[in-house]
Amino acid sequence: MSSDSHKPHVMFFPFMGYGHMIPTLDMAKLFSSRGAKSTIITTPLNAKILQKPIHTFKNLNPSLKLEIQIIDFPCVQLGLPEGCENPDFFTSSNNTDERNTMMLKFFASMSFFKDQIEKILETTRPSCLIADMFFPWATEAAEKFNVPRLVFHGTGYFSLCSEYCIRSMHKPQKMCETFKVSDLPGDIMMTQGQMRDLDEETEMGKFFIEVIESEVKSSGVVVNSFYELEPEYADFYKSNVVTRAWHIGPLSVHNRGFEEKAKRGKKASIDEVECLKWLNSKRQDSVIYVSFGSVAYIKNEQLIEIAAGLEACGASFIWVVRKSGENTDEEEEEDQEWLPEGFEERVKGRGMIIRGWAPQVMILDHQATGVFVTHCGWNSVLEGVAAGLPMVTWPVGAEQFYNEILVTQVLRTGVSVGTKKHASMGDFISRENVEKAVREVLAGEEAEERRSRAKKLAEMAKAAVEEGGSSYNDLSSFIEEFSS
Ligand code: UDP
């Protein structure tokens, strides 16, 4: 028998948003590089997105096994527009009702994949299935064929523990405007507006209950984090919330070469080499990088305040705005709705706007980048941690407020811009507050201590994934467990 037959065949089934597909691809590459066979299951248009980086990976590592298995996604039949295989298709629409309706339809269509996944599991019999939290039915589907199902949430221990503790609290306790999260280590204070809406009466609330139930019945959870980042919460999660959990992150640090760092997710809307040259011309730790991830919708009134705040702070910046990169007349007209007149002329040489998609990890890892203004999506937070960056935290939805608390209260490497509630409830930050938070992190009173704490965390992150590190070891035990 060849030694290959002892290595596990790990199947990955990511949710189709970039914030889930990007770390899943990193995870699949990592498992392959540790000897496993990895297969990512996804739909035709999403497969196209993954094909190029997989090709690059396989060119660099011809002996490693990483494949894509394509499943059908008949969007029209499911009530979605043709080709709507990724939330990116509708999340930049400026019509709020349309965005919400489409998001609900998109989530509802996720159960359509059940039969196809069952068929694949029946015929392939992989060693395990790492399926996204957004597929709660996957635990039972895998059980039918004796395949262990692992859950991937795409977030860290702190937010998982926060959500668990908030759920367990009695309603009146959490109805106060500011409350202490019972049982959660670290005396964490939270406000009503920061909580994720888990009202059991709403569609989303019901859905999250299914997610929790399927997690409890699953074989465990794979976490993109590292022990040293949030030790108390890793311990709490493992002893109170789930039967098993393995932390194997930060996943993004395995992208070491230019190609891998610069080409993640969508095609970048700027020339990566030009961007690198621009960064090379800047002083160390002097550039502010501003991004709200791949889903968040920021209203024009808010974009204008960000522009004004960045202009007033006087520092160099790269600002990613999720608008189409095509320079059509229509786009130029639209620009006028969110950019103060003459802005680009005035910040020429020190400010760069990327309309669309940025090579984020390449920018964060550059020595000229000194501050990360982030919406606190977990991938972004971890990428910022791995790059040793202090942050301005600006959560807008999902579990991002919990991630903000980790950064500002626990790690103390960030300053909040001051958002009090989910953007859907109408939070707004003035240009003065944008400027104030950025100045504080760039060169304020505690800036040096904050930066030095952030740099230490980056060293810990790198050590965690090296041979013998905490994430390396957790991955070894995972592979060993599922190899037989
Ligand atoms: N990203 C990127 N370029 C962009 C926007 C996002 O490379 O212009 C990547 C980012 O590096 C991260 C992911 O997309 O890996 C976004 O995930 P995150 O959890 O931060 O936020 P989400 O998009 O899910 O809200």
Description:
The strands form 3 sheets. Strands 3-2-1-4-5-8-9 form a 7-stranded parallel beta sheet, sandwiched between helices. The model is unreliable at 324-329 (pLDDT under 50). The protein folds into 2 domains: 4-253 and 464-483, Glycogen Phosphorylase B (Rossmann fold, 3-Layer(aba) Sandwich), CATH 3.40.50.2000; 266-461, Rossmann fold (3-Layer(aba) Sandwich). The protein is 45% helix and 14% strand. The longest helix is centred in the last third of the chain and has 19 residues, at 447-465. The protein has 484 residues and is of the alpha/beta class. Residues 17-19, 22, 264-265, 291, 293-296, 320, 357-358, 360-361, 377-380, 383 line the site of uridine-5'-diphosphate.
Q: Can you lay out the helices and strands and say which pair or pack?
A:
Layout: E1 9-13, H1 18-33, E2 37-42, H2 44-60, E3 65-70, H3 88-91, H4 96-108, H5 114-124, E4 128-132, H6 138-143, E5 149-152, H7 157-168, H8 171-175, E6 178-180, E7 189-191, H9 203-217, E8 220-223, H10 231-241, E9 245-247, H11 258-262, H12 272-280, E10 287-291, H13 300-313, E11 316-321, H14 329-335, H15 343-346, E12 351-355, H16 360-364, E13 369-374, H17 378-386, E14 391-393, H18 400-411, E15 414-416, H19 431-443, H20 447-465, H21 470-481
Parallel strand pairs: 1-2, 1-4, 2-3, 4-5, 5-8, 8-9, 10-11, 10-13, 11-12, 13-14, 14-15
Antiparallel strand pairs: 6-7
